[in-house]
Every structure is written in C-alpha cells, then in structure tokens.
Amino acid sequence: MHQRVNILGTQVSSITTSDLLADFKAAIQNKKLIQVAITPVNSILAAHKNPQVQNAYNAADYVLCDGMPVKWASTFLNTPIVERITGLDLLPSLVAFAAVEKFSLFLLGASPSVGEKLKEVILQQYPNCNVIGIYVPPFMPVFDAAENKKMVDAVNTTAPDIVLISLTAPKQDLWVTQNKSQLHPALYVGIGGAFEVMAGLAKRAPKWVQKAGLEWLYRFIQEPKRLFRRYFMEAPLFIPLIIKQKWGN
What is the pLDDT of residues 37-81, one digit of tens each? Predict the structure, then answer.
C-alpha cells in the first residue's frame, strides 16, 4: 500500500513513478483491475463540489498528483507528496513500459483520428508494441446505455492489459468507476489530453516552464477560450480552500 494525502477530501497518492510502474506490472501479471485517476487542481475542485466525483477518485487505486499547485498544497499541509506525476509524463512512460514488458494497449476516447495518429507514433518509437484496439465514442455529456455497452464491449472483446482513456476528467474516471463490474481486468488509466501531445497534435510547455509551475499558463495561451474559466474563475478558489483545510473553519 502506498501513502495518500488528503487534498480537499480527495486522497492523492504519494508515490514515485518507478514504484508506480512496479505496482502496475504486478497487478497486470495477477490479472487485477486497477483504476488510475490523474488529478490537477480543476479535478480536485470538481471533486470538492461533487460527492460523486470525490467518491470516484477515492475508490480509484491510484490518484496521481498532476499539477504543481497540488504538490505545493501538500507541502503547505505538512504532508508533502513525493512526486508530481502528470498525464503528459505518464503516457510515454506507460507506452515504453508496455513495449518492454510486452503488455497490450487499448486506446479509448479522444477525437476521431487522434487514436490512429497516436498508434502510428507509438509504433514508430516501439515497432513491437501491441496496440490491439482503438475506440472513439461520439461526444456526449453522459453516455447512454447503448453507447456505454459499445465501449465496454470494445474493451472486453480485445482483452487488453492496459486501457488508456482520453475522455476528459472527471468524465473518464466516472466511466471506469461506474463500469468496473463489467470490465475485463486490466490497468485503466484516465490520461486526458495526453493523447494529442504524444501524437504530436499539440505542444507541451518547455521543461523550464514545467519546473517553474507555469505549464498552466502555456496551455492557456494555446487554448484561451476553452481554459479561461478553469484557470481564472475556478483555480483561484483552490488557495483559500487549502488555507481553510489547514486551519479549519
């Protein structure tokens, strides 16, 4: 068992990438269903507002710290998280891990053609990597029963070792939580927008920007309309809530 840190009621994992991959290997070899959620500030705020989302995160096997503000908050609360593990970092690590360990991959979600482009990039880097399926559901705020069955069947028919899910958070995490009882035992990772970045369809901030904790600003400059609300209306609520958590009401 790994340590968890309470950030506004969400139990965030404190674990290194190397230990995480070792846990994944054991789980896959033992045919266990493992759910991994990746939580930046906006996901933790969504969970703070919505008990269903918070329950989904706290039911996941691993809830990873994606975002320097989350890591800084853990230090402020005197329970420092050992490593920030973003979806953008985890995806290439998981692909390399799957190639080395000969674990099969299934790509679920993103926009049409993104999965095919990502598969092409993966096979360029790792020709022996086994990408055994791609399924892109139509955009729906909530999947209806018919579409949900198609998604579950697409995964179960191929029986992959690792399912990488790009449906946006917390939608992707709720989907795994709600369908666990029907899904083939595998590693399910809600990886978000990392598909587009690894596929070369979107750019990631330079390393120095990441280390300075300004990756959010780089992303905002790229997509100001989509991210304005997240970064300038929702994110500022995080600091006073963390102060309140530390010192109570």
Answer: 999 999 999 999 999 999 999 999 999 999 888 999 999 999 999
Residue 84 region by backbone torsions, left for phi larger than 0, else alpha for psi between -120 and 50, else beta: beta
Quick check: is 248 in a domain?
Answer: no
d(CA 185, CA 82): 28
pLDDT at 231: 65
Task: Judge whether 111 and 102 are in contact, CB under 8 Å.
Answer: no
In a domain? residue 129: yes
H/E stretch holding 20: helix 17-29
Range of the domain at 125: 11-242
Q: Indicate the pTM of the whole model.
A: 0.92
In the structure encoding, which two tokens stand for residue 83, read together? 């490593």
Residue 90: CB atoms within 10 Å: 22
Sheet of strand 34-39: strand arrangement: 62-65, 34-39, 187-190, 162-166, 105-109, 131-135
CA–CA gap between residue 58 and residue 140 (Å, rounded) = 25
Contacts of 104 (CB under 8 A, 6+ apart): 98, 130, 131, 132, 158, 160, 161, 162
Output b/e per residue, 223-238; b: 16+ Cβ within 10 A.
Answer: eeeebeebbeeebeeb
How far apart (Å, rounded) are the C-alpha atoms in residues 247 and 249? 7
Helical axes 68-76 vs 238-247, angle rounded to 10°: 20
pLDDT confidence band for 205 (50 / 70 / 90): low
Question: What's the structural domain count of the chain?
Answer: 1
Determine the Cα–Cα distance for residues 133 and 119; give it in Å rounded to an integer.
Answer: 9
